[in-house]
Amino acid sequence: MPFLTLRNHTPFPAVFVVRKGQQTIARTPALAPGGELRVSGTQTRTVVATTVIEGNTYTSAPITVTASAGFLARVLQHAPQGTYLFDMQEIPPRGPDCLEFQTTTSGPVTFTISNNGAHLQTVVVKDAFNVVSLPLAGTYSIYAIINGITTDVVQTDDADAVVTAIEGEGTSALEHGDYRLVIG
Question: Which range marks the domain in which residue 86 is found?
Answer without folding.
Answer: 45-134
